[in-house]
Write a structure and sequence with these properties.
The chain contains 12 helices and 8 strands. It is an alpha/beta fold. The chain has a 6-stranded parallel beta sheet, sandwiched between helices. A two-stranded antiparallel ribbon has the order 1-2. Strand 5, helix 6 and strand 6 form a beta-alpha-beta unit. The longest helix is centred in the C-terminal third of the chain and has 35 residues. The chain is globular.
Length: about 280
């Protein structure tokens, strides 16, 4: 096995306005701006990382300082969750739109096809990375997918498996890596691998491979726009998602919206104070 050169790599934060939601700074961008920024950075031989936080991510940021730091260190942090959009509006700093990882996998792939950029699909349930690759190459004729890999359970705890995975991805030299392992596993893996391929863009996209190939049905568009997508997912996997959504997610969302409401008026009151 050839040695892989390790590179000192640090992410470069995107030069977009930011909105603080709870304790997390989120970029105020559209999906189109996100795609264009990534493609423009690739032209300059600069890579980066993208995190698409929803309420679940924000809960984890509150509980795990190391995860919060990963989010803060990402090149792009875009709101994947309608409660985040609502919170930004309540505090008077409206984000332009939701930027979902499940949408970015298609729009960024389309942009990659036009620019001649290559992709690697990493993770997902067994077989979904390959199936998603077929969907994307059919939809965007000429799209370069230089590899897929669905690692076995527990791979992240096995040094030999991690080394083999690192070598496979680095040898493929993709421009963009979609990592579909769920949070926080996908963010942890991106943190481990990014320094070895710092000129690529790395995006955590959760269950997107399964959505793309049809293994899991995504919520209708009206549910996505009205913030009810979580309910659609809950009905599909109640045992796995009940605690995340009902015990942790809903109370945290209410707390976030309340804080955002009062933050708006605190900011307004501060702005109205006379200067001394």
């Amino acid at each position: 096995m050839t040695d892989i050169k390790e590179t000192d790599a640090s992410t470069r934060r995107a030069p977009f306005p930011m909105v603080k939601l709870g304790k997390v700074d989120v970029h105020s961008v559209t999906e189109e701006q996100t795609v264009q920024y990534i493609l423009d950075e690739l032209k300059e031989d600069r890579g980066g990382t993208v995190i698409t936080p929803n309420i679940d991510h924000l809960v984890r940021c509150d509980r795990l300082p190391e995860y919060f730091q990963q989010v803060q260190d990402a090149s792009l942090v875009v709101a994947d969750g309608m409660p985040l959009i609502w919170a930004s509006k309540l505090q008077g700093e409206a984000l332009p739109e939701r930027v979902a990882g499940s949408n970015l996998i298609s729009s960024l792939s389309e942009g990659a096809q036009k620019e001649g950029r290559s992709l690697f699909l990493l993770g997902g349930s067994p077989g979904t990375a390959e199936a998603a690759a077929k969907v994307l190459t059919t939809r965007y004729e000429g799209l370069k997918i230089v590899g897929t890999n669905c690692p076995d359970m527990g791979f992240e705890k096995d040094p030999e498996m991690m080394e083999a995975l690192k070598k496979e991805v680095c040898d493929a030299e993709p421009d963009i890596v979609f990592v579909a392992l769920g949070s926080p596993k996908q963010e942890n893996l991106i943190k481990d691998l990014y320094e070895h391929l710092p000129k690529a863009w790395w995006l955590g996209v959760g269950i997107s491979f399964s959505f793309l190939c049809g293994d899991v049905q995504r919520a209708p568009r009206w549910m996505q726009k009205t913030g009810l997508e979580f309910l659609h997912r809950l009905l599909q996997e109640p045992k796995r998602l009940a605690k995340r959504y009902l015990v942790d997610g809903v109370p945290f969302a209410i707390k976030l919206l309340t804080i955002s409401f009062f933050r708006r008026f605190r900011s307004r009151s501060s702005a109205e104070l006379p200067k001394t």
